[in-house]
Amino acid sequence: MNETRRDRDSEGRAHNARPRDGLGRPLPYGTPGVERQPEGVERTPAQTVREAQRLLDAGMPFHAHEVFEDAWKSGPEEERELWRGLAQLAVGLTHAARGNAKGGARLLRRGASALDAYGAGEAYGMGTAGLAAWARGLAARVERPGAGPVDAAAEAPALRAANG
Asked: How far apart, in Å, are the Cα atoms of 86 and each of 6, 19, 21, 29, 38?
């Protein structure tokens, strides 16, 4: 019989409380890890962009993905593709930093395609065309033979222009 212990929240739902590293990989129980992002936080769009940028700059795109996911799930229906696309960019960067070039490139391109709907415009100070171009460029680079994992902090996109 398999005696696998599953973490549960107060309602009895499965919840993984294992510590994680900066790229969201699970660590052994008892190992110090990076604090997880709380789930289900409702932020304004400006707060979402600010928090996600902080996490991206710190080399924690997995955690930035969780911030975008909260916006995607709690925001207005007409903005869900924007936040979902940004979440895909962040998790694509996560995979690229973990050395999963194929999965990273696929998610980067999927996120870029979601942002294409915004054309050359802006959403909350973010140049969506520039972010899509960044994602496609990174996808092409990580797929090159021998490219290896990327440095998540060094590759993090600027969500807003320097004056935004």
From this structure: 30, 25, 21, 31, 18
User: Could you give the CA distance from residue 43 to residue 91 in angstroms, rounded to a whole number?
Assistant: 20
Query: In the predicted model, is pLDDT for residue 8 greater than 60?
Result: no
Angle at 119 between CA 91 and CA 53, to 5 degrees: 35
CA-closest candidate to residue 97, choices 141, 38, 134, 127: 141
Cα(131)–Cα(119) distance, integer angstroms: 11
Task: Determine the longest span between alpha carbons in the chain, in angstroms.
Answer: 59
Q: What is residue 3's predicted lDDT score, i.e. its pLDDT?
A: 41
Task: Compute how many other C-beta atoms are within 10 angstroms of the C-beta atom of residue 130.
Answer: 16
Rounded Cα distance between 51 and 55, Å, is 6
Per-residue CA distances from 106 to 37, 89, 120, 163 (Å): 24, 10, 22, 31
Cα separations in angstroms, 12 against 7, 18, 20, 73, 82: 9, 17, 22, 22, 32
